[in-house]
């Protein structure tokens, strides 16, 4: 799917292509970015398994964007990752 979208984007952006300027409709873009139902189901199951409830569900077109807030130690466990914070003190020379 990604390669198809990339090719179509290349074609509509190429001055020499017959599809030049035939931009995607809002509905086509939403179809490209819509997750498959099995992905949504898996995400819901994973969040429920870890007792995580979305803070907000924001409609974006005909899609929903989830926002969750959890402590870093829980995110590290859930994602099997380690997060670090790095900061630098700015100095004028």
Automatic annotation (TrEMBL):
Transmembrane parts of this sequence: none
One Gene Ontology term from the biological process aspect of the record: proteolysis
A molecular-function term among this protein's GO annotations: tripeptidyl-peptidase activity
UniProt-listed InterPro entries: S53_propep, Tripeptidyl-peptidase_I
Source organism, top-level taxon: Eukaryota
Pfam family name, one: Pro-kuma_activ
Domain Peptidase S53 activation: 4-84
Official protein name in the record: Peptidase S53 activation domain-containing protein
Source organism per UniProt: Clathrus columnatus
High-level lineage: Eukaryota, Fungi, Dikarya, Basidiomycota, Agaricomycotina
């Amino acid at each position: 799917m990604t390669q198809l979208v990339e090719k179509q984007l290349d074609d509509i952006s190429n001055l020499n292509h017959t599809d030049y300027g035939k931009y995607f409709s809002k509905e086509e873009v939403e179809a490209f970015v819509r997750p498959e139902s099995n992905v949504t189901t898996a995400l819901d199951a994973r969040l429920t398994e870890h007792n995580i409830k979305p803070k907000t569900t924001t409609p974006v077109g005909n899609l929903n964007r989830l926002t969750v807030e959890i402590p870093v130690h829980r995110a590290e466990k859930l994602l099997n990752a380690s997060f670090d914070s790095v900061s630098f003190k700015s100095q004028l020379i």
